[in-house]
Amino acid sequence: MKKLFIAALALLALVSCAPKQQCNAVHTKWAYDATIYELNTRQATEEGTFAAAEALLPEIKESGVDIIWIMPIQQIGVLERKGTLGSYYAITDYCQFNPEFGTRADFESFLAKAHELGLKVILDWVANHTAPDSEWTKNDGWHYRDSLGNLMVQYDWTDISKLNYDNQDMRAAMKQAMHWWMDTIGIDGFRCDVAGEVPTDFWNDVMAEIRVKHPDMFTLAEDEAEAQDLTESAFDMYYGWELHHLMNGVAQGSKTVEDLWGYFAKVDTTIRKEAIRMNFTSNHDENSWNGTEFERMGDATDLFAAFTYVVPGMPMIYTGQMSGNHHRLEFFEKDVIDRVENAPQKALYKGLNDLRANNPALWSNEKGAEMVRLTADNDKVFACVRTKSCPKHGDNTVIAIMNMSAEPQTVTLDLTNLEGEYNCLCGKTMTVEATQTLELTPWKYIILTK
Questions:
Q1: Distance separating alpha carbons of residues 362 and 183, to the nearest angstrom
Q2: How many other C-beta atoms are found inside a 10 Å radius of the C-beta of residue 395?
Q3: Cα separation of 286 and 121, whole Å?
Q4: pLDDT for 260-285, tens place per residue?
Q5: Averaged pLDDT, 405-410
Q6: More confident residue, 14 or 155
Q7: Is 106 helix (H, G, I), strand (E, B) or coil?
Q8: 328, 348, 368 — which closes off a domain?
């Protein structure tokens, strides 16, 4: 009888959460309310070193960031190198540190400081290819070769050579290197470059092995097309590439609010619910090759920064986005980010990070709330609500109303059952009524919480 009573209590706790929400964890507990920050070591400081980046950690922590994804830090190839300094992603030795950034001791100091501040650090892992002058290219069968025996490249990546995952010795060496970074160096996980180009069974094997000893490891796959398979067991999070491109399109007038809702309806049925989507307005690829968020999104930049926090997933901030960087960063050369005194983006992201941390409805996946579309009479306005009701955190509601156009808009919303007093992200309070009419200036957004 006692066992039945306990079971009944457990069931009651589960069903008392809002529909389709759970209070149990699928991912490491520290990831659910986290914001991730991509660190470009070369361009983050004048020195471009681990030691200089370490000095930035208190500021990054104070902003509300929780996870640092650090771009590859291993030794870079010289053969076929692009530019003066080369690509982070053309690695010669997976367990040697790039002297441009400093020594192993320098990185271990950086990592220790990050952990002391409560930050997690995941390493960008390049498993798809090596530099053509890697020692691995001397091993028979470890790389793809053409009919003449020449190393093979992909796309226009002429500074790399693609690895052959049919070779079991190569697989074993790759696993050993990943274990070394977790076991010996003590990182907290991996962001895996072009993850969909590497066989999924390799990721499944190696991540399962590592998680035996490191169950709290966090993993990010740079892929969306193969996200359903990649997130089955190997990866916690995938790239929201399509959503990113849609945001650019809406900002530029080629896509609509309806396109955004169509995307969310699609991924709800094509990608597993446990998979966390990474939401972003910039990253190292977008900034260098397609332009800054200001170039691509113009006056809509702040709105879409907020959008990445409101919709389901985990928001990501790229190096320079909080310091007012307005220029494309060179990829193969030294090119330090802009640091604008009192940059408004610093306060913007601090406010958004606090919003996420303090509102469980916005947390990722099963720890957060489902996003529900609000009825609105204006198709230029994106309006949604996320409501979470769970014994552990209490009731929490977040309403977002966003004018996704360059023109003023008037919108009337049906907010039945959402009436009451709310705190606005703008710092004021607002009374919500069952039927609400609002005047919105171009690209204005309102985020309400209670």
A1: 33
A2: 12
A3: 22
A4: 999 999 999 999 999 999 999 999 99
A5: 98
A6: 155
A7: helix
A8: 368
Q: Would you state the pLDDT for residue 25?
A: 55
Domain membership of residue 254 (yes or no) is yes
Here the tokens at position 208 are 């399962």
Task: Give mean pLDDT, residues 109-136.
Answer: 98
User: Could you tell me which of 343, 354, 402, 346 has the C-alpha nearest to residue 378?
Assistant: 402
Contact at 8 Å (CB) between 320 and 332? no
| Domain termination site, one of 315, 338, 368 | 368
Q: Using DSSP, state whether 168 is helix, strand or coil.
A: helix
How many helices (H) does the chain have, and how many strands (E)?
14, 21
Which of these, 236, 223, 179, lies nearest to 26 by C-alpha position?
236
Identify the bridge partners of residue 93 per DSSP, sorted by sequence position: 75
Which range of residues forms the domain containing residue 190? 17-368
For 84-101, what is the mean pLDDT? 98
The total domain count for the chain is 2
Structure tokens at 14: 């589960």
308 with 406, same domain?
Answer: no
Q: Are 356 and 388 in contact (CB under 8 A)?
A: no
Question: What is the enclosing helix (H) or strand (E) of 422?
Answer: strand 420-424
Type of residue found at 197: E
Helix axes 301-310, 344-358, angle to 10 degrees: 20
pLDDT at 4 over 50: no
Confidence band (pLDDT; 50, 70, 90) for 11? very low
Find the angle CA(388)-CA(391)-CA(397) to the nearest 5 degrees: 20
Is 216 a domain residue? yes
pLDDT at 391: 75
Coil, strand or helix: which one is 78? coil
In a domain, 5, yes or no: no
| Structure confidence at residue 12 (pLDDT) | 35
User: Can you give the pTM of this predicted structure?
Assistant: 0.93
pLDDT digits 0-9 by tens, 280-327: 999 999 999 999 999 999 999 999 999 999 999 999 999 999 999 999
CATH number at residue 394: 2.60.40.1180
Cα angle, residue 17 at apex, residues 15 and 22 outer, rounded to 5°:
85
Instruction: Report the interhelical angle of 301-310 vs 241-252 (nearest 10°).
Output: 150
79: domain CATH number is 3.20.20.80
359 in the same domain as 385: no
- The answer to whether 371 touches 261, Cβ cutoff 8 Å, is no
DSSP 269-328: HHS-TTPEEEEES--HHIIIII--HHHHHGGGHHHHHHHHHHSSSEEEEETTTTTT--SP
Residues in a beta bridge with 68: 37, 121
- CA-CA distances (angstroms) from residue 228 to 123, 211, 320, 322? 22, 20, 31, 32
